[in-house]
Amino acid sequence: MFEKMEYEFAGWLKNMGLGAFATVIRTVLLLLVGLFLIKLVNNLVRKALLRSKLEKAAHSMIIGVVRVLLYVLLLINVASSLGIDITGVVALASVLTLAVSLALQNMLANVMGGFTILTTHPFHSGDYVDIGGQSGTVEEITMVYTRLATPDNKIVSIPNNTVIGSQITNYSVAGTRRVDLEVSASYDMAAQNVIDALLQAGDVEKVLKDPAPFAAVSNYGESAIGYTLRLWVKSQDYWDVFYQVNQRIQQVFAENHIEMSYPHLNVHLNQ
Questions:
Q1: Measured by CB atoms within 10 angstroms of the end CB, which terminus of the chain is less buried, N or C?
Q2: DSSP label at 237?
Q3: SS3 per-residue string spanning 44-79
C-alpha cells in the first residue's frame, strides 16, 4: 500500500511539481540574466553619451527611456516563460498608450523638440541667444523647456516646440561679436577729428586688434553728421565694452572740444 502511494506521489510530483519547479527556476534565471543585461546596457549607454556631443540635459532622459524599454521587454519575456497569455495585456497597453499620447501631444511635441535641439546643436548651455525676439543666456535645456537668463536676471522658460519653430540667433557660437556704436556731431566739427576721437574712445583693453577698430561717417542728418564706430570683442566681453566705450565717447569728445549735436530748429524773423 505504501509503495503504491509513494509511486502515485512521485508521479504527481513529476507531472505537476517538478514541471512547475523547473518553470520557476527557468524564470528566475531569466529574470537574473535580464537584470544583469539591463545594468550592462545602461552602463554602455551612459559611457557612449559621455563621449558624445549631446547636451548633458539629454543624458538622463535617454538613459531613462532605454531602461524603461528594457524592463518592458524583460517583463514580457518573464510573463511568457511563466505561460501567461500577454496578448490582452499588450492590446490594453497599446490602447492606453494611444490615449495618453493624444492627451499629452503638446508635451510629446516639446519632448521631440528637445531631442531636435540636443541633436542639431543650434546652441549650448552658456550661449547668448535670441529666440523669436527673446534674448538671454541659455541656462538649461530640458526635454520640455529651454530656459534663458535675461540680462536683468529674469528666467524665461520657452517650450522646445516653440524654440525649433522660431528664428534662433546665436551670438556666442562664433566666439567674437562686433560692437556697433552710432553717434552724431556738429557740422562745424571736422569729420577726421571726430573719427580720430571715436577711435581714441574705442581704444580699451578688451577690444581686439584684429579686425581693427573702424570709424567713419555714416550719414548726413538735418542737424548733425552721423558717425559709426565698430569694434570687435570676444563674445563674453560685449556688454562690458559696449557700456565702457559709450561712456568714454562723451569724455573724449569733451577733451577734444567736439560738440555732440542734437535736433534743433533755427528761426529767423525779418523785421
A1: C
A2: G
A3: HHHHHHHHCCCCHHHHHHHHHHHHHHHHHHHHHHHH
C-alpha–C-alpha distance, residues 72 and 93, integer Å? 11
pLDDT in tens, 74-84: 887 777 776 66
Neighbours of 224 (CB within 10 A): 21
* pLDDT at residue 11 in the model: 55
Sequence-distant contacts of 71-77: CB under 8 A, at least 24 apart = 71/38, 74/31, 74/34, 74/35, 74/38, 77/30, 77/34
Lookup: cell for 194: 571726430
Contact criterion met (CB below 8 Å) for 150 and 81: no
Q: In 3D, which of 158, 175, 84, 172 has the Cα closest to residue 123?
A: 172
DSSP string, 85-109: --HHHHHHHHHHHHHHHHHTHHHHH
Predicted structure pTM score: 0.57
Distance CA 250, CA 256 (A): 10
Query: Residue 229 pairs with which residues in a beta bridge?
Result: 181, 215
Radius of gyration of the chain (CA): 35
- Cell 511635441 locates to 109
CB 128 within 8 A of CB 106: no
pLDDT at 90: 61
Closest CA to 69 of 45, 95, 102: 45
Total Cβ atoms within 10 A of residue 214: 16
* CB 140, CB 112: distance < 8 Å: no
The CA distance from 77 to 84, in Å, is: 10
